[in-house]
Design brief:
The protein is α/β, with parallel strands linked by helices. Helices cover about 35% and strands about 25% of the residues. The strands form 7 sheets. A 5-stranded parallel β-sheet has the order 3-2-1-7-19. It has a 5-stranded antiparallel β-sheet with strand order 20-21-24-23-22, sandwiched between helices.
Length: about 475
């Protein structure tokens, strides 16, 4: 394509964690960026995922602490749940964080904003809201949506997902949760602590990607809170708003006032012209290589829309990698050797690198396990948070994984991730993948700020612009 036909150096479709990082990075490097978004900036994490769920968890913890009675010589006179007040806290949390993802901020970085639904009309062209955009590089950051299981009758009921859960006008009296993954577990415990009767239905293992000992500790704590766990698969749903009954595959009937579907996510991308261009797909999303390039090598797919791990910090990491790849020609590949994640139940369940089961499958008898109980830690003792353990998974003397279950587990993952990769120093710390949201992000942000003037300096921008000019000329 001749250079004069390009409107931009790169087109980024989607303004969630992945797209904003990629677009902002390319803009800071001096490229002309088109950023396309049809909905709210910030994506799922800000608007109906990480932020509102953690705000709800915080409110639930407050209720739990008030309900526990006298502790440490301090007496609290019970808990009264004001659901409208809880919703205000959730909405205020979103509103407070939203300016980080404000369109004006990214315009200041050099991005041109286009609002509307995008469609690829050619290998390097995108149509949106009456505009035809063209660029030598395109980034798909389309996100994902709830995967709803094919349960007979469910579609006719007012069921909940993370997309409408936080707009509930009243606290559910009896909540049924379908799915024992991170979202299902977090929301089951939170609503239980806020006063709902909660039943969680899961056929397989709860927190299936986590260490079995950690998952068992979390489940035991939730059962102590009052969450009821049922093993099975829902096959039929019937009822009306406020009175729902689910029939399981063994014939058992579970009744509730509300049903939350938390059975996973499916990638977006249908109707955008991707299949017509010959783009290849994996089992649940666009197929990509280690550089996040699709089968059309000039088009990248990052975040939830591609086949692979779906985590906010992974989306940001991939956005950074792609910004470097496009702007400077640095072929940065993803590395999951020290990928961290955390489920924010109480206790938290954190994981980085390999679990014990994964390590034994890979390395056999070479694996050594080192444990440290929280009860041995003076801070945990003074705070009365002694339930939990750290498990280090070693291959000889090398750390290949770590599982943490206990209060603040997520905040403990950063140094473990650095140890697994063998990296040290502020540059490595600023490049680390950190589980979101944890206070460890403060450390990463400070380390990155120390290197930002050099990374985005005038000489580096000249290199980025020169590469962009070559692409405009040669494609």
């Amino acid at each position: 394509m001749p250079s004069q036909t390009y409107t931009h150096d790169v087109i980024v479709i989607g303004a969630g964690a992945a797209g904003l990082t990629a677009a902002g990075g390319c803009g800071l490097f001096g490229l002309k960026v088109a950023l396309v978004e049809r909905g709210a900036f910030g994506g799922e994490c800000l608007n109906n995922g990480c932020v509102p769920s953690k705000a709800l968890i915080a409110a639930a913890r407050r209720a739990y602490e008030a309900r526990r009675g006298a502790r440490f010589g301090v007496s609290v006179n019970g808990a009264r749940i004001d659901w409208d007040g809880v919703r205000v806290h959730v909405e205020t949390s979103i509103a407070t964080i939203a300016p980080h993802d404000d369109p004006a901020r990214f315009e200041a970085m050099g991005c041109e904003i286009f609002r509307g639904t995008a469609r690829l009309t050619g290998p390097r062209t995108v149509a949106v809201a009456g505009h035809t955009l063209a660029a030598p590089r395109i980034v798909l950051a389309l996100g994902s949506e709830p995967a709803v299981p094919p349960i007979e009758g469910l579609a006719s009921l007012p069921f909940l997902t993370n997309e409408n859960l936080f707009q509930l006008s009243r606290l559910p009296s009896r909540l049924i949760v379908l799915g024992g993954g991170a979202v299902g577990m977090e929301m089951a415990q939170a609503f239980c602590r806020l006063g709902s009767q909660v039943t969680l239905i899961e056929r397989g293992e709860i927190l299936s990607r986590d260490d079995r000992e950690s998952a068992a500790l979390a489940k035991a704590a939730m059962e102590a809170d009052g969450v009821r766990f049922v093993s099975g698969t829902a096959v039929r749903a019937m009822g009306t708003d406020g009175a729902i009954a689910l029939t399981l595959d063994d014939g058992a009937v579970i009744e509730g006032s509300h049903v939350l579907v938390a059975t996973g996510r499916k990638a977006r991308g249908a109707g955008m012209g991707l299949a017509e261009l010959g783009m290849k797909f994996g089992s649940n999303g666009i197929a990509v290589d280690a550089r996040r390039r699709t089968s059309l090598k000039h088009i990248y797919a990052i975040g939830d829309c591609r086949d692979g791990p779906r985590l906010t910090h992974v989306a940001g990491y991939e956005g950074s990698n792609v910004a470097l790849d496009i702007s400077l020609g640095v072929p940065t590949k993803v590395d999951w050797a020290a990928l961290p994640w955390c489920t924010y139940t109480a206790p938290e369940v954190g994981q980085v690198g390999l679990t014990e089961a994964q390590a034994r499958k890979k390395f056999g008898d070479k694996v050594r396990i080192v444990r440290e109980d929280f009860s041995h830690n003076d801070r945990a003792v003074t705070e009365g948070a002694m339930d939990g353990q750290l498990k280090l998974v070693m291959k000889g003397r090398k750390l290949v994984g770590a599982s943490v279950c206990g209060e603040g587990a997520g905040d403990m993952l950063l140094p473990l991730a650095q140890t697994i990769t063998g990296k040290a120093g502020t540059f490595a710390l600023g490049s680390a993948i950190i589980a979101y949201p944890t206070r460890g992000e403060i450390t990463k942000a400070g380390a990155f700020a120390a290197w930002e003037p050099l990374v985005f300096s005038a000489p580096v921008k000249r290199i980025a612009r020169a590469l962009a000019a070559l692409r405009r000329r040669f494609g």
